[in-house]
Amino acid sequence: MPSCPTRAVMAALATLVLVGFAPITAKAQTPMSGTFIAEARCPALQSIRRKSNPGTVTTEPGASYEIVGRNTDPATHYYLVFPGAEPERRWIAVGCGRIATPADLSAEAKSQEPASNDPRGSTALGAALARATARTGRDPAQTGQASDSGRSPQGRYVLAASWHAAFCEGQPRRRECRSGGKDEAFTLHGLWVEPRDRAYCGVAPEIQRADEAGRWSDLPAPDLTPDTARALDAAMPGRMAALDRHEWVKHGSCYGADAEEYFRESLALLSALNASPVRDLFRDRRGKELASAQIRRAFDEAFGRGSGARVLTDCKDDDGRRIIAELRIHLEGTIAPDSDLGALMRQAPKAAPGCRGGIVDPSGDQ
What is the pTM of this model? Predict the structure, then answer.
């Protein structure tokens, strides 16, 4: 009858088992150190494969978390510490935020300094800088672009106002096009900082790569108030396809303000356009040709002489029909919620006219 294994043999077997499994654990997590700044609310997963999240733990926009590892190289998820959670180490998708820079850490350190003369002192200043950095992807103390007054910095911009029915032509299955596209007013494509190559300011490389690859739903969601989010839902149909995330990451990151101010001021400019005779002209010409010269004259009448020369008409081909896709309105000056759209236009350099004109596309597949 065989004898029972001795303690020494059992210990040896246990050691072999542990050694055999060690490489699997090492491959599952590559050690890494640093600080992760969340830019969206994302699930903190115990298991990436099973997507398990005990306690329904999420990141908080603007909050910092210790990084202890990553899953692969290049990473798709970071391994973060969530004090008080069970378990406290969780996986977060890289697109949920960014790795802190020295400027971020400097701002955070300022928020920890004791106050001097002002009872709020440097603590309040540091906290404000840290919040702005986390929300915009920049260190405003370093760039000089913080907007404490609620106004964006002076510069040049392009307001891209789409004719949504034209955008939807030929792609009716897109979520935002299932109704046939809007043809009652202009919709918001974006507000672009000039020059056009000024983009992705302070954005983490992982997020920029995701944006350039068209993975917009993987980008962090802009931090907006409920009122602004509702207004954006109505004015930007492309939000169903995460267009707002793309516009914020690529263009809004260079605007010098947080996402709330960037989109609120974009909406104000679009509202001024849609309250003008220019919108009426497009609505009246649905299904008919409209020349870019007519569009420019309408801008002159609505927003002052010379404003029409700041408008580029962009067209696209639709099975042999040339349709007007959007207007690109050049602006210069300090943008605020109560800005005069005409004044901003007249201060800007003249724009190329774009296409000679096209059909104002009505809703539905033509």
Answer: 0.61
